[in-house]
Amino acid sequence: MAGPLDGVRILDLTSNFMGPYASLLLADMGADVSKVESREGDTTREIGPCRNRGMSAIFLHLNRNKRSLVLDLKSAGGNAALKRMMRSADVLLYSLRPKAMARLGLTYEDARAVNPGIVYCGMYGFGQNGPYADRPAYDDLIQAAVGMPVLQSRKVGPPGYVATAIADRVVGMAAASAVSMALFRRERSGQGQEVQVPMFETFAHFVMGDHLYGHTFVPAIGDWGYQRMMNPDRRPYRTLDGYIGVNVYIDKHWHRFFEVSGHPEMARDPRFADIHGRTENIGILYEFLGRVFETRTTAEWLAIMTEADIPAIEMHTPESLLDDPHMKDVGFFTEQVHPSEGVLRTLGIPQQWSESSPELRYPAPRLGEHSAQLLDEYGFSSSEIDALLDSGAAYAGDPRQGHTVDRGKRGRDDT
């Protein structure tokens, strides 16, 4: 057993960031994820640095613990093959718009007809009962639609996007959670179901819990936006030789900080006596912190803050994080030898499990690397697999581009 979802079969028809992040989380938990790709492959295969085309850094991190199957779903043979695989799959995961799935004959009704127990999960831009139902969506669009750039602008000036695919990854996490819960319900009821995870609504749920703020009340009590989060001085603080991240938050933190920083009188100021007053005057406090932290080195402040039990940590870059002593001791960054890409640095599985511990089973797959193998495991005969490959309905990789698939190979391949 390798993870709590060991034995769960997932047909993953997603690409780009959101869907592959959802299936990554499920694959890391032990699910057997068949990454169903077109002949062109997932778009992220070409994003970022690479040693070989089609195996970029972004793709490698989003698609480990999965196996790649190339099917032409617009062809009769490829489409029929997927529907046959659906009979014994537990989950169908997709990120196409629902109308595209309908054109392929892959609606929930189609899936349920061949497998009533299947969990059918779609991730797409907007809920299907609203006027935006047919619109395309990407991370930037959803950030804008929910107001994230405006929230950022109160900190940094003109509206800007968060510097990571935050909407894609948040929605991917929500989808992985939804699939797991649907599987749990099926264990109890025996029933499969359709689960819709729209980006717009899911990301709005994530952001508005902080920023609806005064508009929580009807009529509104004040403005939208959690003031502390948007204040431009809420940032890592410059020290004499670097930067430090600090969260002086509860009453005892502030009282101790006023003391160790040489300003004990501020603890008696009614503006800073409790969290309500501090929230109303957070700009003054952030400006104060900015001045104070510039008076000592990062190491000196870390020692002072640790002694006072005030949350603080040195600010890293993505490069310096690799040398963080905690990350080294927990083994978060590991090296893995990929059969075509050489030595790679990979991200560990963050959780610790006392039983059914997840593992890094597969490196990210080459395009079509496991086509023959997966078709075999789903019950196709050798002659049927050869017919699919010969017709172009399936594809098994190109050895000239570093793909090492043997069309005649059968059984599990843990490389």
Summarize the structure.
The protein has helices at residues 18-28, 57-62, 76-86, 98-103, 108-114, 139-146, 148-156, 166-189, 199-211, 227-230, 251-260, 275-280, 282-293, 298-308, 325-330, 371-377, 382-391, and strands at residues 9-13, 32-37, 66-71, 91-94, 119-124, 193-198, 237-238, 243-246, 312-314, 333-338, 342-347, 394-395. With 415 residues, the chain is an alpha/beta fold.
- Provide the CATH architecture of the largest domain: 3-Layer(aba) Sandwich
Oligomer designation? single chain
CATH structural class of the largest domain: Alpha Beta
User: Cα distance, first to last residue?
Assistant: 18 Å
Structural class assignment: alpha/beta
What global shape is seen? elongated
The level of helicity is: 25-40%
Give a written overview of the molecule.
This protein is an alpha/beta fold and 415 residues long. The chain folds into 2 domains: 9-205 and 332-401, Crotonobetainyl-coa:carnitine coa-transferase, domain 1 (Rossmann fold), CATH 3.40.50; 237-314, formyl-coa transferase, domain 3. The chain is 39% helix and 13% strand. The chain is built from 17 helices and 12 strands. It has helices spanning 18-28, 57-62, 76-86, 98-103, 108-114, 139-146, 148-156, 166-189, 199-211, 227-230, 251-260, 275-280, 282-293, 298-308, 325-330, 371-377, 382-391, and strands at 9-13, 32-37, 66-71, 91-94, 119-124, 193-198, 237-238, 243-246, 312-314, 333-338, 342-347, 394-395. A 7-stranded mixed beta sheet has the order 6-5-4-1-2-3-12, with helices on both faces. The chain has a 3-stranded antiparallel beta sheet with strand order 7-8-9, covered by helices on one side. Helix 1 (18-28) crosses helix 8 (166-189), helix 6 crosses helix 9 (199-211) and helix 8 crosses helix 9. The longest helix has 24 residues, at 166-189. It is elongated and about 85 Å long. The relative contact order is 0.14.
